[in-house]
Design a protein that fits this description.
Number of domains: 2
Structural class: alpha+beta
Order of helices and strands: HEHEEEEEHEEEEHEEEEHEEE
Distance between the termini: 96 Å
CATH class of the largest domain: Alpha Beta
CATH topology of the largest domain: 2,3-Dihydroxybiphenyl 1,2-Dioxygenase, domain 1
Oligomer: single chain
Number of helices: 5
Strand content: 35-45%
CATH superfamily of the largest domain: 2,3-Dihydroxybiphenyl 1,2-Dioxygenase, domain 1
Shape: globular
Length: about 325
Amino acid sequence: MPAARRNKARAIARAATFLAAFLLLLVATPGSTETKPEAAVAVGPEYDATHVYVSPADLDAFISSFIATFGGKASKRSVVNVLPVPSREEFQYVLTPAGALSVFAFQTPVPFPFGQERTGYLVTDMEQAIRAARSAGAEVIVEPFKDPIGMDAVIQWPGGVKMQLYWHFTPPSNPPLETIPENRVYLSRDRADKFVDGFVRFSQGKVIEDDKHADAGEIGCPGQTYRRVRIESRFGKVQVMVTDGHLPYPFGREVTGYEVKDLSATLEKAKQSGARIVSAPYTTSDRITATVEFPGGSLAEVHSRVSPAAHSFN
């Protein structure tokens, strides 16, 4: 073989050996091909607000009843456009020891898809939160947009669970809550695991309970069982009810559950302030639970913790 051909063959062999060693180094180096997880984007449960839509005629009665039931106070009312398209709405923020509300009373028709999002979660960085949500399996159904005090977006999880993310130009400063509310999510068996897995990844939280035989009396089906998943993260609490969809009213309509120290006293305050008790108190292994309808039609689950031996309401 001529010398030139031998030299070319040696060069090719050396290059192949170098490439193989380089690829082996990439595979063997810990973390060299792994994607670092996103930093946590949640701020805290005191900044996570249930979104409530009422008519302008019901706004005063709803806010008065809610505060009479749970305590707290409302912000000054403003008439603004908080959406990325033309609209006009009365807005008030309500902060109680049991959780926060963003209350909207639209004077114009509500543009799609607003009114379907259940909660607003304050995040530390909007771009990072959007990346984290998409990476965890959510879709962004309303791209980030500016409002008068910050940025907003709406995301949707498997099963159609819609949530708003928001960020403020000037960080808010809310006091800690006395009890942490729970986001109550009803899902089918077809989508429950995808939602749970995705939301846990996004929130960097954890599943603290996955009871496949929970007492279905707490969702209006006594004598039956269902799967109940509880998640906790810096966003707060989420309770997932996995059902066959055979639910009597009002179950499946309530968006948020509020923990109180004394359920009986709280329900009495609710009734005295114009609210209705639409599901009677029911005792499970760890709570007494009822459902309240406030003026304007907004529903909320309310519960107190109980000892395992307490079953006085059933």
